[in-house]
Design a protein that fits this description.
By secondary structure, the protein is an all-alpha fold. It is built from 25 helices and no strands. The relative contact order is 0.06. GO terms for molecular function: phosphatidylinositol-4,5-bisphosphate binding. Keywords: Exocytosis, Protein transport, Transport.
């Protein structure tokens, strides 16, 4: 057994000694085979870099148009080849070749980026902008009203190119290209809206005001537009009036009565009447002021459009431009359009300042709707410009401040000018009707009603008191009330001064009566009376007292007529006793004095004017009652007394005839 086992062990040892070298040799051969395979693989890989230029050159030369993904794949291969040669064989001529190819490919991608942006970037149609502006309230989500600036496939390609250029091309030039192209598009979109607005306004003849909530017929959505209140035409008409007042004065030959319609006409008709009269008189070019209205409304449109389009541009930009470059690129993108808007606003302010120097205070009326809209849009402006440079953010507040300062100056100078309007005889209405200064001042104040908060803010901007710093709508309302009271006070002082131009105290009284009555009625018809009452509770009562005082002053003009026939001025005659010559002469003189005085007053006062029919009837009725009663008593007492052989020579009028004559006062057509 031992011998067998020993033999077996010996054989195993021999077998092991013979197999182990074979195993090791086989293992070495396998390793050699693997190394050869790896070497061949590496050689293939290295050789592939030498083939990259040849394999990709054709695609690179043809450009990425229509096969962007394939092109980008080629660019990745070229980039890897460049990296290989730089690391392993920097002196290889192949490095220069692939480098050159890479640069050409990058330039082609930049060119493709520019080409796609240029070809597919188009101004937003005005109708879409108007829908975007009007869509705030109707849309549940902002996405529903978002604009498609670029087709989806094009946008995808642009995003891929920009991503590759940032990651692999280490190139930011495309961002400059991007903001330049989009900036031009933004500016053209806003200018297109302005042109569209002008064309539509001129073709329809009725300015489409951004301030009026109406429905556009030329848009598919037909949504009402939410914008500030601006009465188209009314401001223009007011400007016509104020310009005429400021620059020309009244035409004394015509007088002002033809400019003031009778009481009871609607305010707009009165404005139209005044505007037409002044336009005809001074030859204002037809359509010029309509154009001016359109410009104001178009500017308000453009401000809203800028905000909406800028928001939309930022959403697009976030998809294309890397995050850390977005704010700077956006700032550059909006600069041109924002600068144009601000420049146009500055031009309006500059024109207003020049107009104020010329005492043309109508210019301030153009600022009101614009300033109101700018202040309404400021929160959205601030949100859109968030993250932009401080200079960009401060442009709108600067324009608002400039407008407030200019507006406040115009308001104050207007008030002073009302006070200092010269008392010229040629400037006074011959018939004592409402002076144009009064109608202009009231019309100007009525324009402030639509812009109470804006006007109050203008005045508050000039205040330095602690109450102004804690600005509130109530404080602004009080300031505006104080201002209106100041204008009315200055107007009253000026009217008193003007009334002294008339030599006849009665005509002076009629003039003041007409003006005070016009002021009171105008205050009552509008909300001005409530605004005045904020600081002057008794204003209405004061005007009624002033009107009554002037009526009494006017009535005193009839005393020289009625004094002839008053009982107290006559001697007592005994009935049945024959009159003495002296007494008969006295009665004759009384009748003659009354007749002459009545005829003279009726002739003079018939040409005077009281536009308010109610007041005219009231004054005539009161005067008729006084004169008829006095004359009736006198006629009853002396009509049958034999003081003359020709009674018809002295008793010219019966009581009713006297009444009829007085009824025809203040009426040139009677």
């Amino acid at each position: 057994m031992v011998s067998i086992l020993s033999s077996f062990e010996s054989r195993l040892m021999k077998l092991e000694n013979s197999i182990i070298p074979v195993h090791k040799q086989t293992e070495n051969l396998q390793r050699l085979q693997e190394n050869v395979e790896k070497t061949l693989s590496c050689l293939d890989h290295v050789i592939s870099y030498y083939h990259v230029a040849k394999d990709t050159e054709k695609i690179i030369k043809e450009g990425p148009t229509g096969r962007l993904e394939e092109y980008l794949s080629c660019m990745d291969k070229i980039q890897k080849a460049v990296e290989y040669f730089q690391d392993n064989n920097p002196d290889s001529p192949e490095l220069n070749r692939v480098k050159s190819l890479f640069e050409r490919g990058k330039e082609s991608l930049e060119s493709e980026f520019r080409s796609l942006m240029t070809r597919h970037t188009k101004p937003v149609p005005p109708i879409l902008i108007l829908d975007l502006i009007s869509g705030d309230e109707e849309m549940d989500t902002q996405e529903e009203m978002s604009l498609e600036h670029l087709p989806e496939s094009v946008l995808h390609d642009i995003i891929r190119i920009s991503g590759w250029l940032v990651e692999n091309g280490r190139n930011q030039d495309f961002m400059t290209v991007y903001f330049q192209i989009r900036s031009v598009q933004l500016d053209r979109s806003i200018k297109g809206l302005k042109d569209h607005f002008r064309k539509n306004s001129s073709s329809s003849g009725v300015p489409y005001s951004p301030a009026i909530q109406n429905k556009r017929k030329d848009t598919p959505t037909k949504k009402p537009i939410k914008r500030p209140v601006l009465i188209p035409g009314t401001i223009r008409k007011a400007q016509n009036l104020l310009k005429q007042y400021s620059q020309h004065g009244l035409d004394g030959k015509k007088g002002a009565s033809n400019l003031i319609p009778m009481e009871g006409h609607e305010h707009d008709l009165r404005v139209k009447h005044l505007s037409d009269a002044l336009g005809d008189k001074h030859g204002l070019p037809a359509g010029r002021d309509d154009v001016f209205d359109i410009e104001i409304d178009a500017y308000i449109h453009c401000v809203s459009a800028f905000v909406k389009l800028a928001q939309s541009e930022y959403q697009l930009l976030t998809e294309i431009v890397p995050e850390h470059h977005q704010k700077k690129t956006f700032d550059s993108l909006i600069q041109e359009s924002l600068d144009n808007l601000i420049m146009e606003g500055d031009n309006i302010v500059s024109a207003a300042r020049k107009a104020i120097i010329r005492h043309d205070y109508s210019a301030v009326l153009t600022i009101f709707p614009i300033l109101k809209h700018l202040k309404q849009m400021k929160p959205e402006f601030d949100q859109v410009l968030q993250g932009t440079a401080a200079g960009t953010k401060n442009k709108l507040p600067g324009l608002i401040t400039s407008m407030e300062t200019t507006g406040a100056k115009a308001l104050e100078e207007f008030a002073d000018n009302i006070k200092n309007d010269p008392d010229k005889e040629y400037n006074m209405p011959k018939d004592g009707t409402v002076h144009e200064l009064t109608s202009n001042a009231i019309l100007f104040l009525q324009q402030l009603l639509d812009f109470q908060e804006t006007a109050g803010a203008m005045l508050a901007s000039q205040e330095t008191s602690s109450s102004a710093s804690s600005y509130s709508s109530e404080f602004s309302r009080r300031l505006l009330s104080t201002y209106i009271c100041k204008v009315l006070g200055n107007l009253q002082l000026n009217l008193l001064s003007k009334s002294k131009v008339y030599e006849d105290p009665a005509l002076s009284a009629i003039f003041l009566h007409n003006n005070y009555n016009y002021i009171l009625k105008s205050l009552e018809k509008s909300e001005l009376i409530q605004l005045v009452a904020v600081t002057q509770k008794t204003a209405e009562r004061s005007y009624r007292e002033l009107i009554e005082q002037q009526i009494q002053t006017y009535q005193r003009s009839w005393l020289k007529v009625t004094d002839y026939i008053l009982e107290r001025n006559l001697p007592v005659f005994q009935p049945g006793v024959k009159l003495k010559d002296k007494e008969r002469q006295m009665i004759k003189e009384r009748f003659k004095g009354f007749n002459d005085g009545l005829e003279e007053l009726c002739k003079i006062q018939k040409a005077w004017a009281i536009p308010d029919m109610e007041q005219r009837d009231k004054i005539c009725r009161a005067q008729k009652t006084i004169v008829k009663e006095t004359y009736g008593a006198f006629l009853n007492k002396y009509g049958n007394v034999p003081f003359t052989k020709n009674p018809e020579k002295y008793i010219k009028y019966q009581v009713d005839q006297v009444g009829e004559m007085i009824e025809k006062l203040f009426d040139t057509s009677a």
